[in-house]
């Protein structure tokens, strides 16, 4: 018998039949370089950013990634960065005051995270004038978080505009009245040394007094009713109370105190005294807001 066996065929044999081998060139290869092995820029951590507000404008201040949360960023770091951003001399940089949610970042060496500051937080910056201070400073608990009358020599019991610091009406708020009971008589302020005669520009005086007038009217008409309502009856819910307190204090700082800071006395005692009276009044207002918040 004839033995016939079928040949074994490769399943791929027919694929190359009648075809030329592929032409492979260097372009068909890709090479990995040392740069390809490095991490791409997108994988690098992003900077921590704080939004610094100063006189109506907002600028970003960049810091190393995670420096806020890791407890590496301190108050003086922000102050120094603001000085660079505003191109301030060192003497003026030292007078920069920083606020977050209405609270001053007072201690230069304190960690900013201890004040609740986070990435993308808004920081309000102000520059204190040595003679005509329009900032609000932290001080004793009896005056809340914004300073005592002793911060300004010769502070009177009433503002020069009369009435309550909050509403502008007659009588003081109950909380303010309690603070003033039993106070020691004020010492008569020392007479300042005689100064060289300053030529008063009537046009400049009129313009600056108009700024003060508009700022006072804005507070009396727009903010005072809201402030008085909060002081009399703060929300029972602690979270709502803190949020309302934050909004009121930030609005006062940005819309009143900053505008007072922009008023330039230029040696004019009339302008200076009226501005100082409004500053003291805002100190009283925010101290009463703090006291109302503490009751919730």
From TrEMBL:
Comp. bias (Acidic residues): 148-159
Disordered: annotated span: 1-46, 133-201
A Pfam family matched in the record: BAG
Protein origin, superkingdom: Eukaryota
Name of protein: BAG domain-containing protein
Basic residues composition bias: residue spans: 177-189
GO molecular function terms noted in the UniProt entry: protein-folding chaperone binding
Domain called BAG: residue spans: 235-293
Composition bias, Gly residues: 165-174
Species: Cephalotrichum gorgonifer
Ranges of biased composition (kind: Low complexity): 34-44
């Amino acid at each position: 018998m004839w033995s016939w066996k079928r040949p074994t065929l490769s399943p791929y044999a027919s694929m190359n039949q009648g075809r030329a081998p592929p032409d492979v060139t260097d372009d068909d290869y890709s090479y990995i370089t040392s740069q390809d092995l490095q991490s791409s820029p997108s994988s690098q951590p992003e900077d921590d950013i704080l939004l610094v507000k100063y006189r109506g404008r907002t600028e970003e201040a960049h810091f190393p990634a995670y420096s806020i949360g890791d407890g590496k960023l301190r108050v003086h770091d922000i102050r120094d960065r603001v000085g660079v951003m505003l191109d301030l001399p060192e003497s003026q940089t030292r007078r920069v005051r920083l606020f977050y949610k209405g609270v001053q970042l007072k201690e230069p060496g304190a960690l900013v995270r201890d004040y609740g500051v986070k990435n993308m937080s808004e920081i309000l910056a102000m520059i204190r004038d040595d003679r005509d201070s329009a900032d609000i400073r932290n001080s004793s608990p009896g005056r809340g978080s914004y300073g005592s009358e002793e911060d300004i020599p010769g502070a009177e019991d009433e503002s020069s505009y009369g009435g309550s610091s909050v509403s502008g009406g007659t009588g003081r708020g109950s909380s303010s009245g309690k603070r003033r009971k039993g106070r020691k008589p004020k010492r008569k302020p020392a007479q300042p040394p005689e100064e060289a005669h300053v030529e008063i520009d009537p046009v400049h005086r009129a313009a600056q007094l108009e700024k003060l007038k508009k700022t006072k009217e804005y507070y009396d008409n727009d903010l005072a009713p809201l402030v008085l309502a909060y002081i009399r009856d703060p929300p029972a819910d602690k979270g709502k109370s803190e949020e309302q307190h934050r909004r009121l204090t930030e609005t006062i700082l940005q819309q009143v105190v900053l505008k007072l800071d922009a008023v330039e006395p230029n040696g004019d005692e009339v302008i200076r005294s009226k501005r100082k009276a409004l500053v003291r009044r805002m100190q009283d207002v925010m101290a009463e807001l703090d006291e109302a918040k503490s009751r919730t």
